[in-house]
Amino acid sequence: MVAKSIRFEKNRHLPKNRIPMRWSLGCMILTSAFAAIAVTEAAGVQPSERVFPTTTRAWISVPSTEALKESFNKTQYGQLLLDPVMKPFLDSFRDQLRKSGNERLGKIELTLEDLEQVPGGEMALALIESQPGTLAMVLMVDTTSHEAEAKAVVDGIMERMIARGAKRLLGTPPGVTAFEVAPDTAEKMPKVRRVAFATGPSILLVGDDPITVSQTFSVLATGRKDSLETLESFKAVMKQCKNDNIQTPAHLRWFVDPFSYLTIVQKMNASREKRKGPDYTAILKRQGFDVLKAAGGLVSFDDGIYEVRHRTMVYAPPLPGRESDAIDRFDMAARMLRFPNQEAINPFPWIPQDVSSWSSVEWDMKTAFASAESLIDDVVGEKGVFDDVIASLKEDPDGPQIDVEKDLVERLGTRVTVISDYAEPMGTDSERLLFAIETIDPETVAETVAKSMLTDPDMQKIDIAGHVVWELIDRSHEMPILVVETPGGVIEHEDHAEDKKNKGHHRLREKDERLLPHSAVTVAHGHLLIASHRDFLERVLSTNGGPEALAGVTDFEIANTELTRIMSSPKAMISFSRSEKTIRPTYELLRKGLMPKSKSVTAQLLNVILGDGKEGSVRTQKIDGSLLPEFDMVRRYFGSAGISMQSLPEGWYVSGFGLPKSLEEPEVARSPVTLIER
Questions:
Q1: From CA 272, how far away is CA 490, in angstroms rounded?
Q2: Which end of the chain lies in a sparser environment, N or C, as judged by fewer CB atoms within 10 Å?
Q3: pLDDT per residue over 34-45, tens digit each?
Q4: pTM score, two decimals?
Q5: Is residue 670 part of a domain?
């Protein structure tokens, strides 16, 4: 069969409806059987960060695929995937990928099996802003010692493309072969696709833009002066992440310019059905959060101590002329990004010993409150909403008549703690969360909370172990199901509000209820405690240190020692988690096909991100987990994890690890928690 041909015009803009790369190694892979450039053969190939341009918006690199595979397979995560009990699910999952309309490799006629045969050295994937508002994807593969396999893969790609009736593009840049593939609704590929590739000695390039592939191909030997490596943000990120002087080489490196990437993705997908609600990317930019210039880091597996070791830098230098530690380091709502370092952050004695996870962060909440006005108004879509809500709480004769800033915010400390767990039997309402906000004047905060709750008909006063607790009355049987209002979802924005007389007060309250429909609130242990469920709050209130507390448990002590090792004080955040317990709720719901119906915050966020954006609709679970083995068969592969964060003059440095199960004591006995029937 002979492929049809169409002429490629160099000045013609490529279609802007290409699906952007989502960090799966499949989004772009290509190859070709064209002649190599002699200089490439003589000089070798430069690292990808010297080849890709400064307009690279996202980048991921595996310096050695063989080293990555070998190290990963030695970890308990790798052993889990090699366990025969996982084979039925993994085979099914690969089949799901091949059949899915979201499967990226199929869009360029490449399979995961193809990709596994090719790499001999570095494999790097980049999203490049080739033209304003347009992303081009390029995969760069070092095929050293795998040239024959690379040729076989290229031949297979070309055969499949020709069989699909792909049109050969004429007039492409020298050394580049390109095809255009017509939409295929049967294969859930409704858009025109372009595949461009170029090969040389020990190198393979694949992408969706012939010009970008050609430009990359031409600088393989020499690199480019305006490379990704020369970006100030890239240099700052990589320098910080290498400061730990870790001997084990990084098996994976990554970098992203978050706001540039998100803005372009939105523009390229503007034809999608418009969802109700505000544009959060635009809002965050208007509110000054575009000071988050970049994020990136290094990941290593099996370094002799840790299953995984990751280092991340969020690059956010102060605005020109501003001091790095000043409140006005940033503008508008971005000023709430103040996380002071402290010499010691330890779990409080009332944190139960058997929780799934614990995190504590230092946060300048007074500055955050003072900076929140413009953000809340922007989210709701009406200027003055924040002030109206605060004023009504203070002045409305039918309201609580509290001064939020004076009676609450000014009485808070700087420590925010979050703990999580789950209740059995495992179901859609099993996840448990508790937020604890430090107070410097518990009595006044308790009085303020009481005033607020007494005027709310949906809150009931109860007593738990001598503590006054306010519990949200469950009226789910009396009202329609409400959709979680989170970024990307269906917040009733002012532009779409049917009753504009109800400003932000009612809508903000409604949002809170949807996130925590069974919440319970109290002031105890010197903190304002907000729990997702009463049973979890009861456990916290009954814990008073000693052997019942997290701080004295062996697995935490081991992790805490390692946290001190990987990052010296001061720190702004510490986190500890038991992977077995944090993973289990999601694992069980995937097995039962109930993930979209879960009431956990994580599941509701997934519903927003992966759903259709229509109010009241329930998404279809994307992954068929029915072939997953019983959790008891795989729980031995999950150990513990720790994360530390440190505030720096130019951003935040995050360092963390995963510990193998073998380093831990036997499982901590769980408290007998069961779901409360309501």
A1: 16
A2: N
A3: 333 333 333 368
A4: 0.83
A5: no
For residue 188, what are its two tokens? 């859930």
Instruction: Judge contact between 474 and 678, C-beta under 8 A.
Output: yes
> Tell me: the pLDDT tens digits for 315-342?
999 999 999 999 999 999 999 999 999 9
Total tally of structural domains belonging to the chain = 2
Are 35 and 147 in a shared domain? yes
The length of the chain in residues reads: 678
- Considering only CA atoms, which of 412, 414, 493, 418 is closest in space to residue 449? 412
Of 227, 262, 297, the one marking the end of a domain is 227
Asked if the structure places residue 252 within a domain, the reply is no
Residue 65: name the closest of 127, 125, 141, 126 by CA. Answer: 141
Domain boundary among 209, 227, 245: 227
**C-alpha dihedral (360, 361, 367, 369), degrees to nearest 10:** -40
Taking the C-alpha atoms of residue 100 and residue 115, their distance in angstroms, rounded to an integer, is 18
- Structure confidence by residue, pLDDT tens digits, 417-432: 999 999 988 888 889 9
pLDDT digits (tens, 9 = 90+) for 650-672: 999 999 999 998 654 445 444 54
Residue 266, in any domain of the structure: no
In terms of residue numbers, what domain contains 185?
4-227
**Three-class SS of residue 50?**
helix
If DSSP states are collapsed to H, E and C, what string results for 279-339? Answer: CHHHHHHHCCHHHCCEEEEEEEECCCCCCEEEEEEEECCCCCCCCCCCHHHCCHHHHHCCC
Q: Are residues 221 and 341 in the same domain?
A: no
Helices (H), 339-478: 365-380, 385-395, 442-454
230-262 burial code (b ≥16 CB/10 A, e <16): ebebbebbbebbeeeebeeebbbbbbbbbbbbb
**Is 234 among the domain residues?**
no
